[in-house]
Design brief:
About 50% of the residues lie in helices and about 10% in strands. It has helices spanning about 1-35, 45-60, 65-75, 80-95, 105-125, 135-140, 145-155, 185-210, 230-240, 270-280, 310-325, 335-340, 345-355, 355-365, 370-375, 410-420, 425-440, 450-455, 465-470, 480-490, 495-505, 550-565, and strands at about 220-225, 250-255, 260, 290, 295-300, 380-385, 390-395, 470-475, 525, 535-540, 545. The strands form 4 sheets. Strands 8-9-11-10 form a 4-stranded mixed β-sheet, covered by helices on one side. Strands 1-2-3 form a 3-stranded mixed β-sheet. Strands 4-5 form a two-stranded antiparallel ribbon.
Length: about 575
């Protein structure tokens, strides 16, 4: 009887599997057609209802069926997959964002389905650009602090050995599908995490100070004093000797002949400190980095004689800048940010770092003749070391191992690994250690490498139209005031370099923040009547103090004099 029951259960299970397979045979083609409906996600009731049902059915299918459907969809022309499927889901999510609390379950289910589309798009080589998966309306509507809290709670509850497959379905936090968040929203999450960490460190320091009989206010900040001519040495000695204080709010004082310069650090002094320090770090005479004229980027110098502490300082500086919301004018190839996020570099990254070398290696791979006789290469690398040539083997006995048609792929792989990893391993490890000393929170995992670069460096493109639309006026100035109109006429006529210098003069940084210049609020304040005094700025508050000059030509002349000669809290 038991055998009969088991046989009956097996037949029933078999019938279920056969029935499910038969169901999917006609269901998947139907879903393929329905996902291409141009009404998906439209504000019309039928569009919302249709997408809600499509999302529900797709999310409830077996994993294999989901992958089958998305593999079909991603093979469609990008204008169909991106224009109808991805954008249809994005319209649906944007519409739901207006009722983000009431429709949270629908939003998370749609995010889960869009995650399937995102993965399929990545596997297919990104036929739809990744920014198409950002949703600005949802990013603006969500309580990002609450999303971060949910994300951290899930990470803490998840076993350390678990994989992404164990993520809650649907996701509990939008941070579990971070491609939906705009870079600006991710930046806000990271800044929120930094604020919480600062608060925790400050509270711990205050308690420690009281236990030692020290006034808590003396332990609140990461206070450093630097001399302009010795900024690198001073920063190195003070920052690297206080690893436990790196997450405190930074406060910088410049000194000259032992006397502190004027200016209280409300942000502007710190920005200038980073600007001068970065310029010093990348000086050619230090030899820490090599500069490529071809790519206009810096790469770690495999011949550097500097100790790991110096490279650790560079990582700390990048981390501190992110942690304190300061943009740096640094020029690394994107593979640096990939490696910081734990992504292994590839040959495509070598093309970004050393294009000429990559082209030569590509010719080697594509050559159809006698590789060994033509190229005469062996499994080693030659590089310059302060006027001499050094050789390093890519494999044991590599100098005696010829590159042939049979092993050239291995040679290119090992050469690429040496340039991007092995040859600079000591330098990069110290750099990454310093970076993660400061930026070791979970918020960093939300970023792609290109977004991390944007967070560090800001946007090189300067749209002064955005800056003008967000500007505010004080002290008698208004948008229609003649001097204000002359100011914008002068600024719009500036070259790119002059715009960078103006932005640096007013904000302390020559680049736009994540999200563009619309994220900055420039304050233009009247600084008295017509005069021969130059304009001044409070970089801490993005404030331009502009006298009411009598003519546009005079304003143009005085503004150029100011931005060409300003350094520190005064003129050089």
């Amino acid at each position: 009887q038991r055998q009969q029951q088991e046989q009956q259960q097996q037949r029933q299970q078999g019938d279920i599997v056969v029935g499910a397979s038969a169901l999917l045979e006609w269901l998947l083609p139907c879903l393929l057609v329905l996902w291409l409906n141009p009404l998906n996600g439209e504000a019309l009731a039928i569009g919302t209802a249709l997408t809600t049902k499509l999302v529900s059915v797709t999310a409830s299918m077996p994993r294999v069926a989901k992958y089958t459907l998305t593999s079909w969809l991603v093979q469609l022309p990008p204008e169909l997959f991106g224009g109808r499927v991805v954008r249809g889901l994005q319209r649906y999510l944007s519409g739901a964002a207006s009722s983000v609390v009431a429709r949270r379950q629908e939003i998370m289910l749609a995010a889960e389905v869009l995650d399937l589309m995102f993965d399929a798009n990545n596997d297919a080589g990104c036929p739809v650009p990744l920014p198409e998966f950002h949703n600005a309306a949802l990013s603006d509507a969500l309580d990002l602090r609450d999303e971060y809290k949910r994300y951290v709670e899930d990470l803490e509850a998840m076993p350390h050995h678990s994989s992404a497959l164990m993520r809650p379905s649907p996701p509990r936090s939008i941070c579990q599908v971070p491609f939906l968040l705009t870079p600006s929203a991710k930046s806000l999450i990271l800044q929120g995490e930094a604020s919480m960490q600062k608060q925790h460190v400050v509270q711990s320091s205050a308690i420690s100070a009281m236990m030692q009989g020290i006034h808590p206010s003396l332990m609140v900040f990461l206070d450093i004093q630097v001399r302009r001519p010795h900024i690198l040495q001073d920063a190195l000695s003070q920052l690297m000797s206080r690893p436990d204080d790196l997450k405190k709010p930074l406060r910088v004082t410049f000194t000259s002949n032992g006397v502190p310069e004027e200016g209280v650090d409300e942000g502007g002094v710190s920005r200038e400190f980073f600007q001068l320090l970065v310029a010093d770090i990348f000086r050619a005479d230090y030899g820490m980095f090599t500069y490529s004229e071809e790519t206009r980027t810096f790469w770690f110098n495999p011949s550097s004689l500097e100790s790991g502490v110096e490279f650790q300082l560079v990582g700390v500086v990048l981390g501190l800048a992110i942690y304190n919301g300061i943009i740096l004018d640094v020029h690394f190839p994107q593979v640096v940010y990939k490696k910081l996020l734990g992504v292994a570099p590839t040959f495509a990254d070598l093309q970004d770092v050393q294009p000429s070398l990559a082209r030569g290696l590509l010719q080697l791979l594509q050559f159809e003749g006698d590789v060994e006789a033509t190229f005469c290469r062996t499994f080693d690398v030659e590089y310059e070391f302060y006027g001499t040539t050094r050789t390093e083997e890519l494999v044991p006995g590599g100098s005696a191992k010829a590159v042939t048609a049979a092993n050239r792929e291995e040679y290119v792989e090992r050469y690429t690994r040496w340039v991007l990893t092995d040859g600079v391993d000591q330098q990069f490890r110290a750099f990454a250690h310093g970076f993660h000393q400061v930026c070791g929170g979970v918020a960093l995992s939300l970023f792609r490498h290109d977004e991390l670069e944007l967070l560090v460096c800001g946007l090189p493109h300067l749209d002064f139209g955005e800056l003008q639309r967000g500007a505010k006026y004080e002290g008698g100035y208004s948008e229609s005031h003649g001097t204000v109109q002359s100011l914008w006429s002068v600024l719009n006529g500036f070259s790119t370099d002059q715009r960078r210098r103006f932005l640096s003069f007013v904000t302390g940084c020559p680049r736009a923040p994540v999200g563009g210049l619309g994220q900055l609020t420039l304050v233009v304040q009247r600084a008295g009547p017509d005069t021969d005094r130059l304009p001044t700025a409070h970089t801490c508050f993005n404030s331009l103090l502009l006298p009411d000059y009598a003519t546009k030509d005079k304003l143009h002349k005085m503004l150029l004099l100011a931005i060409d000669n300003a350094q520190g809290f005064g003129l050089k």
